[in-house]
Amino acid sequence: MSTAATRLAELNARVIACKKCPRLVAWREQVAVEKRAAFRDEDYWGRPVPGFGDPRARVLVCGLAPAAHGGNRTGRVFTGDRSGDWLFAALHRAGFANQPTSTHRRDGLRLRDCYIAACVRCAPPGNRPTTEERDNCLPYLARELQILDRLRVIVCLGGFAWDGTLHVLRTLGQAVGHRPRFGHGAEAAVGRYILVGCYHPSQQNTFTGRLTVAMLDAVMASARVVADHRPGEMVSG
């Protein structure tokens, strides 16, 4: 196991054991007991959901938090819900994943040159973590950025992930300068990283056409181009 892989495994063990936020602990465990009818015969994960992917990744995809009956059920970020269906299909088309689906932790999925994480690691009620809960959790993302020393690009799925990532980069001493605004397709150079904005692949966005397959693919293609070229290069197009 590589040094980065070892450090990520140690970090993930700490994430899984985390109980910093009483409201989130109570909610994730309640959901794991009550379950959704469609999954009543499944054993829910019901714990914080760690990051997942390639320890040598140059691209990190950052989301908001696990879904109550997605990651909180399966134990893998963006796995078991419609958002994940969109995301992993796009990652596969872009060459970042060996298969287009992510259904459970032992389904054979492997990411190449990509790592996936979230600002908050527990499923929050109403999908709305508090600022305090976010700030309790962001040190885990900061540590991932420190361990993933080849990382060049951070794809932020939604404004919450964009703002959380900027907060983390400030704590790590990366030069933020003026505060870049989130938008789909927005790009911002922050220290050694390029941030790329993308609408979250939630049903609210995909059902209404606010986010289309082509739009999501374009973001992943941009992330690939930036990762493949010289540091600090902005993607045109």
Can you walk through the features of this model?
This protein has 237 residues and is of the alpha/beta class. It has one domain: Uracil-DNA Glycosylase, subunit E. Helix content is 39%, strand content 11%. Strands 1-3-2-4-6-5 form a six-stranded mixed beta sheet, sandwiched between helices. A hairpin with a 2-residue loop joins strand 5 and strand 6.
Give the SSE layout.
Blueprint (H helix, E strand, L loop, with lengths): L2 H14 L5 H13 L17 E2 L5 E5 L7 H4 L7 H12 L20 E5 L12 H17 L5 E5 L1 H13 L15 E4 L2 E6 L4 H4 L6 H16 L9
Parallel strand pairs: 2-3, 2-4, 4-6
Antiparallel strand pairs: 1-3, 5-6
Helix pairs in contact: 1-5, 4-8, 5-6
In terms of structural class, how would the helical and strand content be classed? alpha/beta
What share of residues is helical?
25-40%
Return the domain count: 1
Shape assignment? globular
State the CATH topology: Uracil-DNA Glycosylase, subunit E
Radius of gyration: 17 Å
CATH architecture: 3-Layer(aba) Sandwich
Question: Which key terms come to mind for this protein?
Answer:
Uracil-DNA Glycosylase, subunit E, 11% strand, 237 residues, alpha/beta
